[in-house]
Amino acid sequence: MSGLSKEHIKEDVSICFVRALAAQSGVSYDTPGRDNDSVDATISYAGACKGWILSSPRIDIQLKATSSPKYDKYGNLVFPLPIKNFNDLSRRTQVPRILIVLILNHKSDFVRLFTSNLLIDGTAYWMYLNSYVTSSTAKKKISIKIPPENRLTLQTVMRMMHNVGKDIDITTGL
């Protein structure tokens, strides 16, 4: 029996995870027709809130997923990001771009259905690479260190959206 590869399953689960988080945060989740600029999705807020300078803020997202995470001695997630994605995400753009890495807690059965709920068994972390400093001379992949405090939550999504609306650094207050 054939079907989706393990990598395609992880990709689909990461999309569902972030889409669900966006919905619960009250923001839209959209996908571009083509991902040729390291943008898998865009989250956006319709309208504006008090104190915002910009209306309808957006954040572009590059999604990755793994069930075999690696950590350094400080507890940072060390994720091998293709150099093309790093270059696309680290340059200055009109719409801020973040990397989201979903850590799936099992080698299989990433999604489990119970009588009363559906569980996506994982935790997501984010990184804003605009000012990321690296000394790497890698040709194919670069190791990105994501601190444990960069766990993606409902509050994080809304704080980032408010920061973009206020036209301040996306990471302020996070």
What is the correct CATH architecture?
3-Layer(aba) Sandwich
Per the principal axes of the C-alpha atoms, what is the gross shape? globular
Task: Quickly give the structural class.
Answer: alpha+beta
Proportion of helical residues: 10-25%
Strand fraction band? 25-35%
Highest CATH level, the class? Alpha Beta
User: Main sheet?
Assistant: 5 strands, mixed
Mean pLDDT: 90
Number of domains: 1
Number of helices: 3
What features would you describe in this structure?
- With 174 residues, the chain is of the alpha+beta class.
- The protein has one domain: Trna Endonuclease, Chain: A, domain 1.
- It contains 3 helices and 10 strands; from the N terminus they run αβββββαβββββα.
- The chain has a 5-stranded mixed sheet with strand order 1-2-3-6-9, sandwiched between helices.
- A hairpin with a 5-residue loop joins strand 4 and strand 5.
- The longest helix is centred in the first third of the chain and has 20 residues.
- The N and C termini lie far apart (46 Å).
